What we know:
mainly alpha; 4 helices; elongated
Amino acid sequence: xxxxxxxxxxxxxxxxxxxxxxxxxxxxxxxxxxxxxxxxxxxxxxxxxxxxxxxxxxxxxxxxxxxxxxxxxxxxxxxxxxxxxxxxxxxxxxxxxxxxxxxxxxxxxxxxxxxxxxxx
Length: 120
């Protein structure tokens, strides 16, 4: 009984995080902020849903679920770092920076976003 309550709470919290991630992707102003919302809240939400499913089903092989969560949490951060780096180098617009561009002079960057360079 207690396990099923914990499972439902875990899945509910996971769905709430996924919903917040979706709202962040839809509402945040630039690619970097949207990516942060999708990877952080989405990754935590997905992990909580998988954990809830493992707890609810009494899985005979919980190692598979735990390894799935671990793999996902490790790879999401690396993938988001690489995507953010590619977006920065390609000239994606930076919004709402209080102290300016922290990578100016560190990484080469296109002068204009891809949309402006390819517009005809």
